[in-house]
Amino acid sequence: MAAVVVLAIVGLLPLCLMVGSSLWVDGSLSSRNYVEVLGNARTWILFRNSLVLATLTTAVAGLAGVSLGILVARTDLPFSSSIAVVFSLPLLFPPYILAVGWFEILGRGGILARWIPIGETTSRWLFGLPGAVLVLGSAFLPIVLLLTITYLRGMNPSLEQAARLSAGWPAVLRRITIPLITPGILLSLVLVFLLSMGEFGAPAFLRIDVFPVASFTQSSAFYNFGAATAAAMPLIAVVLAGLLMIQRILHGRAYSFRWGGQSTLERIPLGRKKPIVLLAVVVLAAILVGVPLAGVLWRGSSVAALSDALQRAGESAIRSFVYAGLSATFLSVLGFFVAYLVYRRSVAGWWSVDALALFLFTLPGTVLGIGLIALWNHPSTNWIYATPAMLMIGFVAQYAALSSRIVLAGFSQMSPSLEEAAEVAGAGWFRRVFGILTPLVRPALLASWAVTFVFCLRDVALPLLLASPGRDTLTARTMTLMANGSSELIAALCLLAVLLALLPLGAIGIAWRLWRTPA
Amino acid sequence: MSAIELQKVWKTYGGRSVVSHLSFRIEKGERVTIHGPSGSGKTTVLRMLAGFLAPDEGVVLIGGQEVAANGKIHVGPEHRNLGMVFQDLALWPHLTVYQNLEFALKAQGLTADVRRQRIGEVLARVRLDEFSGTYPARLSGGQQQRVAIARALVAQPLALLMDEPLSNLDDDLKDELCTHLLDLHAQLGFTLVYVTHSKEEMRKIGNRAILLKDAKGVSV
Amino acid sequence: MGQEGSQQLAAGFPVARRTVNRSCWIVLSLAALVGCGTGRPNAVTVYVSEDQIFSESILKDFKRETGIKVNAVFDTEEAKSTGVMNRLLAEKNNPQADVYWANEPVRADVLRQQGISTPYKPVSAAEIPDRFKDQQGYWTGFSARARLLVVNKAASIKPASALAYVDPKTKGKGVIANPLFGTTTAQMAALFTLWGDEKGKQFLAGLKNNKVKLSTSNGESADFVASGEFEFALVDSDDAVDRVRHGKPLEIVYPDQGEGEVGVLILPNAVALIRGGPNAENGKKLIEYLVSKETERKLAFADCAQIPLHPGVATPKEIKPIEQTKTMNVNYADLGAKLQAIQPILKEWVGY
Fold first, then answer.
1. At B179, which CATH number?
2. Contact at 8 Å (CB) between C226 and C249?
3. Are B117 and B111 in contact (CB under 8 A)?
C-alpha cells in the first residue's frame, strides 16, 4: 500500500497540480492558457516536428533493432552476445553524448572535414532531421533489440518447431516467429516513440525545434507556468494514447511464455551468407556505436582535457554516482512492492499503479520536473525541496516503471505456489516477503538496480530542473558547459560519463558471476 | 524399405550420453511407442527424427533416404514429410484453427481450393468442422489435442510423431483420444511413433514398443 | 500569473497540501539518507545564464575572497536562459535563489515585470552609465557584448554599417545568424525599436532581396567570413575576438559610428536581487562583486572578451573601451517588449 502512496505522491500529485494551475488564470477557472497555446500555429508546427522525428526514429530503431534481435537471438551468427552488448552500449549514457561524438566526426571542424572538404554539408546534415534520427535511432535501438531478444528467448520453442516441420525458415519467421513476438516488438516501438517524443538533450544539442525543448524555450510557453503546462498537453495526450496501446498490446492477447529453463531453440543456420551478414552487422555497429564513441574518445582522451574535466566536474561526477545509486536502491525497493502488488493483484486497482508508473516513465522529464517544483517548492517543505532528495524524488517518479517491470518479470518466472507453500507453513507476510520472495527474485532486483542506476545516471532533463543549487550532476554540468566550452572539454566530460556508467556495471557483472558460481 | 531407421546413433549433451549406440527400424504403417523413464532420451530421439537435432554419430534414415548423419543434417525438417504433435501441443495462438492447419499446406504451395478441401476433410475426421474459425485458446483441452493431431495429419505425412501428447489430460479424455487416434490410424494408415512414459498408453497404442534404458534401446 | 493568483492556486488545492504533510514521513527516510543540506549560514545561491565556462571562475574568486560559499545553478546553451528562468518563475512563491546573473538585460527585466526581483542599487556600479541599469534598481548591467561587424581582410568592400546588408553592392556577400534566436533577435528588435516597424520590415525584405545567407549561429557566421565564403557578418564581440585571436583573416569593425548613425548595440550582463531570497545580504555582496571594475576587467581579458561598462577599465587590444564607442540608444525594457512583438514577423520572414 505504501508503494501506491509513494508513487502517487511523487508522480501523480505534481501532475494534478500542474493541470489544475494551468486552468486557473487570474483567480478563476479558465481555459485561456489552452486556447492561447493550442490555438498557436507554432505549437502545432513543433508538435508535427516532434511527431516526424519520433516516427522516423521509431522506424529506424525498429527496423534495425528487430532485424538485429533476430540475428542475435535466433541465428548461428558468431559473437552474437558481444554484438548485442555493443549495440546496447548507447543505453548507458545520454543520447546527446552520441550527438557530441557525431559532431566531432561530422562537424565543420570535425575529423572528416580535415580530410575531405565536406564539413559544411555533413554539419548541416547532422544539425537537422537526419542527424537527430541517426542519434536517437542508435540511442533507442537497444530498447527494441533487447525486448526482441527477450521475447524471442521467452518464446515456446515448440511453436517454431511445429512450423519448421512444414516450412523453411523465411516462412516460419514471417508467419510464426515475428507474429508471435509482435507484442514485444510493438511494446518496444511504442516505448521508443514516446521516449523520442520526450527526449530533451540530443535534439537540444542538434538544434532541432521539437516539442519538449521548444515548449519550454519559446515564447509561447515562456514566462507563464500555466501555458507551459497547456503546451505540454498534446505531449501528454500522445503519451496517454501510447499507454493505451501498450495496455492493449499486453493485455489483449495472452501468450504462453516459457521463461528460463534449458533453451532448446534451434538456431537458424546462415550458411554461406554468414561472413557477409557478420560483416554487415560489424559495419553497422561501427557506424552506429563505434564512430560516435570514437569521436568522443578522440577529442576527450588527452590528459589536459581529462584533468580539466575532472577539475571542473569531478564533484558533479561523484554526486551523479551517489544520487543514481541511492535512487536505484530506493527504486528497487519500490519496484519490488509495486511488482508484488501487480503480481498478486491483491489490491483493487492494481493495474492503475502499473499504468501510472508507465505513464510517468514516458512523460518528458521537463514536464515532470516543473510539476515537482510546483508541488514541493513551499516554505513548509523546504527541508526537502532545497536538498538533493528533490532530484531523487524526480528519478523515483520517472523510473518506477522500469524497476517494477523488471522485478515483475522476476516474479512471473516464479511459481505462485512457492509463496503459498510458505503461507501454509505459517510464515507471516513479513517472513514470506523477506525470507522467500526476496531471495527468489534477487537476480531481478539486481537487474532492476543496474538498469535504474544507469537511467538515473544518464538523465539530463530532471537534474537541469531539480538539482539543488551548487549540487548539479555530471550530465547537467556537461550540458551547461557546452555553452562556449571547448569541444575537448565536452568530449572529456562525455568520456567521464561513459566511464561512470561502465565502472559499476562492470562491478555488478563480476558480483553476478561470484553470486551465481556457488549456485 | 523401412519408414524410419536409426543406425548406431549417439547423442551427447555436455559430456553426458543421452542416446548411445541406438538402432531400430520402424516399418510403414506400424504403431510404435518409444518408452522409458524420464531422462532416457525419448524426446531427443524424436527430435532427431523430426530434424531439429543431428546425431553426433550414426545415421538417421527416413523413407530409405539418409536425412542426417555424424553431426550433419542433410534434409531439414520441412523436407522430411513428417507430422508431429508436441507435448504442449504448440498450437499457434495468433492463428485460427483453420489457419493453423493451412500453414503446412501453404508451404507446399497448394491452391486455396485444394487447401480448403483438405482442411475440411481432416477437420471432419477429428470432428471439429464447426471450430475452423476459432482461436485455439477458446477450445477445451480435448479439442486442442484434436486440432494438434489434425494439424500434424493435414499434410498427409509419411509418419506421425507424438511426444507424450496425453500427459496433461484426465483419464476419461485420455481414453477417448486414444480410441480416436486408433480410429484415425485405421482409416489413414500412417506410421505412428508415439513417445510416452505411461505403460498403459504403451499397451493401448503400440503394436510394438521400443524401450529406452541407460541411453540404449531395447525393442520389445 | 500574479502573486494573488498563485496564493489562490495553492488554496485551491487543499488536498494536495494535506497529503504532502501526511506523506512527510515517507520522504523523511530519503532526506535522512541524503542529509539535510539547507541553512548553510554563510552561503549565497545564484542562478546563472552567463556561460558557465566564464562565470564559474568569477564565482570561485568571490568565494575565495569573501569566504561565502556559492551555490550556483547554470543554464544550458540550447535552452538559453530558459532553464533557470523557468526555475525562477516556478519558485516564485518560495525563492531558492538570491541572485540572478543574466547574460542580457531583457530577461532580467522580465523578472522585474513578474515581481520576482527586488530593487538594489550596488555602490560599486555607481560609475556605470545609467542607460545600462534599470532606473529603479531592479537590475544592473555590467560587462557587455557588442554586436560588431567582422569583415574578411580580402573583402572588396569594407562595410561600416548594418545597412551594408541591404546595399545592392554587397549582394550575396553578407551572412547573418538566424534572427529567430539569441542576440540576432535582440539586434532585430533594437532596429525595429529605433526605426519603427515599417522601416524594420523593409530592412528584412532588403536582406532577402540582397541574398543574405542565414547561418545557425554567430560563431558559424564568423567562420563563414573567416573562410572567405562570405565577406562580412554582424556577430557578437566574443565570436569576433575569438576568431581574431586565432589568427583568422578578419577585421573587426564597429558599425554605425558616424554622425546620425544608430551606433553599436550593447548587450550587457545584468544582475538582479531576488525578492525574498534566503540570503539577501550575501546576495547583495555578490552583486557588488559582480558589477565591480575588477570583475569587468577579468571578463574583458577572459576568452569572452566582454566590454567593461565602467569607464577606464583596461581592455584587451581587440576591443574598444566603452567611452570611445557610440552605442545604440535603446531602453532594454522596450527592447524586451519589441522582441516579443516582432516574433511573428521574424517567423514569417524565416519561413516557419
1. 3.40.50.300
2. yes
3. no
The residue type found at A440 is L
CATH architecture of C37-144+269-314: 3-Layer(aba) Sandwich (3.40)
User: Which candidate, B134, B110, B90, B132, places its Cα nearest to that of A177?
Assistant: B90
Which phi and psi angles does A414 have, rounded to 5°?
-105, 140
Does C74 contact A480 at a Cβ distance shorter than 8 Å? Answer: yes
Is residue B128 packed enough to be buried (19+ CB in 10 Å), middle (13-18) or exposed (0-12)? buried
Residue B9 forms part of a structural domain = no
Greatest Cα pair distance in chain A: 77
Number of domains in chain B: 1
Closest chain B residue to A155, measured at CA: B90
- What does the pLDDT look like over C55-80, one tens digit per residue? 999 999 999 999 999 999 998 765 55
Chain A CB contacts of B107 below 8 Å: 166-168, 171
- Answer whether A1-23+302-519 and A40-217+270-300 agree in fold: yes
Question: Scanning every residue of chain A, which has its alpha carbon at the shortest distance from the alpha carbon of B148?
Answer: A162
Please write the tens of the pLDDT for every residue from C14-52. Answer: 333 344 444 444 444 444 444 444 444 689 999 998 888
| Cα gap C146→C139, rounded to integer Å | 19
**What residues in B contact A74, CB-CB < 8 Å?**
none
Residue B86's domain spans which residues? 30-43+76-219
* Cα–Cα distance for residue pair B156/C106, rounded to 1 Å: 83
CATH number of C145-265+337-350: 3.40.190.10
CB contact A186 to B (< 8 Å): no
Mean pLDDT computed over A442-446 = 83
Sequence ranges of the domains in chain A: 1-23+302-519, 40-217+270-300
A40-217+270-300 homologous superfamily: MetI-like (1.10.3720.10)
User: CA B176 to CA B184: how far, in whole Å?
Assistant: 12
Decide if B180 is inside a domain.
Answer: yes
Q: Which helix (H) or strand (E) holds B68?
A: strand B65-69
Q: Where are the alpha helices (DSSP H) in A377-415?
A: 382-385, 389-412
The CA-atom distances, in angstroms, between C118 and each of B98, C48, C102, C140 are: 78, 17, 15, 12
DSSP tag of A287:
I
* A210-236 confidence digits (pLDDT tens): 777 655 554 333 456 666 677 777 777
**Contact C107/C335 with Cβ under 8 angstroms?**
no
ipTM of this model? 0.89
Interchain contact A350–B (C-beta under 8 A): no
Query: Does the domain at residues A1-23+302-519 carry the CATH identifier 1.10.3720.10?
Result: yes
Q: Is the pTM of this model over 0.80?
A: no
